[in-house]
Amino acid sequence: MTVPPVLKSPLSKSLKIALIQLKAGADKAANLTKVTKFVEEAVTKSPTLDLVMLPECFNSPYAVSEFRNYAELIPTGETTTLLSSLAKKHGIFIVGGSIPEIAPEEGNKIFNTSLTFSPEGEIIAKHRKVHLFDIDIPNGITFQESLTLTGGDKATVFKLGEFGNVGLGICYDIRFPELASIASRSPYSSFAMFYPGAFNTTTGPMHWHLLARARAVDNEMYVVLCSPARDVEGGGYQAYGHSLVVDPSGKVIAEAGEEEEEIIYAELDKDAIPKVRDGIPVHYQRRFDVYGDFVGEGKAKVSDK
Ligand SMILES: NC(=O)CC(=O)C(=O)O
Predict the structure, then answer these.
(1) Domain spans in the chain, listed from the N-terminal domain onward
(2) Mutation choice for ligand 1 from 171, 201, 211, CB with most ligand atoms inside 8 A
(3) What are the C-alpha distances in Å from 26 to residues 29, 98, 166?
(4) CA spacing 20 to 30 A to 150: which of 6, 65, 70, 140?
(5) Which regions of 14-151 does DSSP assign to beta strands (E)?
(6) Which of 67, 172, 195, 226 best tests ligand 1's pocket when mutated (most atoms within 8 Å of CB)?
């Protein structure tokens, strides 16, 4: 039996994070002003903060009909420029939720794209939502991102400075366990998956916590989900809120409410992963001789940015 090597302690230093759960309206400038204020508030309240995360589609309404209208160029668009300057100003990582991206080099296709910035303001990760949210639940919700969006074609894993590797997915991507498996296993050995997401009032109660906890337990890693707050008065897509952080044992260690705009804080403890993996060592007990090499080393298409 071949056991691929994995790191026992993939998080080399505890990481302090803040998740900003905001309501994104139709006014892009107002959305960006709000982001600036919330980031200021987070670093003021937690001066030793390492990372701030934003929700999926934080600069626009989450609507198929609006993605093209709000789409920006990366890296020259105003949202990318703002997030880069905020990361640099405050000396923090920013997992920049997601924004609609227009890609002229790909025939002006629109992607749902998440960027991560280093404390120097550099883009260190770019993930295009791989699995598009095309669903139809009778008496629940019908949504078809593929009407205006194109799916990305790579998993995303990157180095979060001195802390270690992390994986990045967007919302519906969490339903596909492969992305988290690729990130957590050799050769990447990530300590966390970050998913900006906007589940809704139909699928949220069914699956939001379940999926976050499942990905955490499957891989014995941290899972971090940041959602917009539900906007009852604003109408439109009703996001589920409940931004949350799950530890490697599957326990929710921080959670926001549904309709409140708020910041939640958590510390990802460097000792938690080895402790969980020592106790229940599924991470090292996989039987690739039985199930083959379906996420084997070197097979996945992983983004280098
Ligand atoms: N909005 C999404 O991409 C996904 C979602 O709401 C769900 O999977 O449920």
Answers:
(1) 15-292
(2) 171
(3) 9, 16, 32
(4) 140
(5) 15-21, 51-53, 93-95, 99-103, 109-117, 123-128, 134-136, 142-144
(6) 172
Would you say the ipTM is above 0.95?
A: yes
Q: What is the pLDDT of residue 263?
A: 98
Does domain 15-292 fall under CATH 3.40.718.10? My reply is: no
Could you report the per-residue pLDDT of 147-205, keeping only the tens digit for each?
999 999 999 999 999 999 999 999 999 999 999 999 999 889 999 999 999 999 999 99
Average pLDDT, the chain: 94
Report the distance separating Cα 303 and Cα 118, nearest Å.
17
In the reported structure, the alpha carbon of residue 198 is separated from the centroid of ligand 1 by a whole-number distance in angstroms of 6
Residue 226 bears catalytic tag: no
Q: What is the CA radius of gyration of the chain?
A: 18
Q: Which of 56, 101, 145, 220 is catalytic?
A: 56
pLDDT at 246 > cutoff 90: yes
* Torsions phi, psi for 259 (to 5 deg): -100, -10
CA of 236 to the centre of ligand 1 (A): 15
Q: How many C-beta atoms lie closer than 10 Å to residue 28's C-beta?
A: 18
pLDDT at position 5:
54
Mean pLDDT of 62-90: 98
30 versus 300: the higher-pLDDT residue is 30
Distances (CA, A) of 69 to 59, 115, 182, 258: 12, 19, 34, 27
pTM given for the model: 0.95
Task: Select from 221, 176, 172 the least CA-distant residue to 196.
Answer: 172
Catalytic residue among 23, 34, 126, 129: 129
